[in-house]
């Protein structure tokens, strides 16, 4: 799939080559694998995300990014090469990971071994 930017055709393979050459590919891949693995572990633990929770997360994302109208959101998705399904999967993964961490924190606290408090991530970015 190629994306046209300023009359240039740039395909995914070129972007992947750049990421590999710059050393950014492996860290990005590692992060995606960690996210997917943790989300699957959360699901296997019985954690789920309701439609209402997903909608609240999407609303918060739109507010944070100034996407006030549906047309603004559609434009943002198109500009970033994302489908609504990919956007929702990303938010669902964030929510699953957050809920799983909360469950693990509560278990640790009940055993008297608390983890340090974790910062809440801003959608699409990891907290430091």
Task: Note the topology.
Layout (H helix, E strand, L loop, with lengths): L1 E4 L2 E4 H11 L2 H20 L6 H14 L5 H10 L4 H27 L18
Antiparallel strand pairs: 1-2
Helix pairs in contact: 2-5, 3-5
Explain what you see.
- 64% of the residues lie in helices and 6% in strands.
- With 128 residues, the chain is mostly helical.
- It has one domain (2-110): Porin chaperone SurA, peptide-binding domain (Triger factor/SurA peptide-binding fold), CATH 1.10.4030.10.
- The protein has a two-stranded antiparallel sheet.
- The longest helix has 27 residues, at 84-110.
- The chain starts with a strand and ends in an 18-residue tail after the last helix.
- The relative contact order is 0.10.
- The model has no long low-confidence stretch (mean pLDDT 88).
Q: Main β-sheet, in a few words?
A: 2 strands, antiparallel
- Determine the CATH superfamily: Porin chaperone SurA, peptide-binding domain
One letter per element, helices H and strands E, the order comes to EEHHHHH
Rg for CA atoms:
18 Å
Mean model confidence by pLDDT: 88
CATH architecture verdict: Orthogonal Bundle
* CATH-defined fold name: Triger factor/SurA peptide-binding fold
Shape: globular
Q: Give the end-to-end Cα distance, rounded to a whole number of Å.
A: 33 Å
- Estimate the strand proportion: 5-15%
- Total beta strands: 2
Count of the domains? 1
Structural class given helices, strands, pairing?
Answer: mainly alpha
Helix content: 55-70%
Oligomer: single chain
Level-1 CATH class name: Mainly Alpha
Per DSSP, the total helix count is: 5
- Poorly predicted runs are none
Sheet with most strands: strand arrangement: 1-2
């Amino acid at each position: 799939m190629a994306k046209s930017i300023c009359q240039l055709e740039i395909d995914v393979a070129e972007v992947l080559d750049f990421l590999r050459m710059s050393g950014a590919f492996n860290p990005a891949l590692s992060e995606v694998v960690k996210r997917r693995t943790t989300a699957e572990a959360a699901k296997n633990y019985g954690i789920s995300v309701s439609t209402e929770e997903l909608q609240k997360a999407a609303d918060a994302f739109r507010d944070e990014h100034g996407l006030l109208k549906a047309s603004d959101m559609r434009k943002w998705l198109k500009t970033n090469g994302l489908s609504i399904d990919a956007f929702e999967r990303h938010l669902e993964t964030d929510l699953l990971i957050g809920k799983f961490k909360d469950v693990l924190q509560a278990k640790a606290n009940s055993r008297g071994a608390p983890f340090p408090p974790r910062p809440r991530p801003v959608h699409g970015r990891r907290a430091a």
